[in-house]
Amino acid sequence: MRYILFFKMSFLIFFAQALNAQPHPDSILLGGREVPKVLLVGTFHFGYPNLDAHQVAAEDQLDILSPQKQAEVEELVNYLAQFRPTKIVVEGGRNSGYLMRRYERWKSGESPLRANEIDQLAFRLMDRFQLDTIYGCDAPGLTYDMEHAPDSTVFNKWLDEIFDGYDWQSEDPMDERYSVWYEYDDKLSLKMPLLKYFKYMNSDPVIQRMHGAYLVGDFKMPGDRGADALALYWYSRNLRIFRRIQQIEAQPEDRILVLFGAGHISILQQQFQASPEYQLVPFGKIGDFTKK
């Protein structure tokens, strides 16, 4: 009985001391262990496939292959190289053999780099750091699985009801303001040097407000339909992307560069910030990271 009382008193004293000390959770979760570093790089699509809701007008599309922009690409690559990546993750399919073949054709001189952010940024970094693979970690959302499931006839009726009118064509005044911002941003990319624009695009205020576009307009459809639609196709897709990155075997000393469309970064950032298994390096502070 005395032993139990002593144990309880000891625990209460320890708990009280812990509350006063306000320890960081990582003192327990990590115990001083090193974890892989992650750099998130949000990008626009250099080739302008215009597959997103916002379409970039032809006059607002920069020519990434022009001599001026190629010099700016080199400057951006030099900046990213400070991170010294050991693994590179891109917005491509899990079977990344097609990317490796493209990389090898460039290395052998058979074909030039395409007007594509993977070619222009990831391939250059792979070459500089002599990396022998690239990781495609894009994923479809849950809606894709439901549409192609054996019971898809049941799911499709339900999905049709949820997504009815979810077409990014809304009369929400805030949605219209986002359209104005997107058009301004398109022109900004033409005026700014590439590195400066990437620092702007990957700053916290821009990342947060970019995600805000998903929370206006069609998100406000009657009832929970907008929330359900966003969860099924967009949150599901990005959580699956994070899960695929988790499945890459990484050592504590690894430095993982993740190159994805800027719209993905907010959700991915939340996951990496919350996870005790990674240390997120802010895009604008790569230099500070390398000084440590």
Taking the alpha carbons of the first and last residues, their distance comes to 52 Å
Number of DSSP strands?
5
- Low-pLDDT runs of 5+ residues are none
Mean of all residue-level pLDDT scores: 89
Question: What shape does the CA trace take?
Answer: globular
Secondary-structure element order, as H and E?
HHEHEHHEHHHHHHEHEH
Binned strand content: 5-15%
Largest sheet descriptor: 5 strands, parallel
Residues in helices, as a percent range: 40-55%
Structural class: alpha/beta
Detail the topology: elements first, then pairings.
Blueprint: H1 2-21, H2 26-29, E1 37-43, H3 67-81, E2 87-90, H4 97-107, H5 117-128, E3 135-136, H6 142-147, H7 152-163, H8 173-191, H9 194-201, H10 204-212, H11 225-246, E4 255-261, H12 265-274, E5 279-280, H13 286-291
Notable traits:
13 helices; 292 residues; alpha/beta; five-stranded parallel sheet; 5 strands
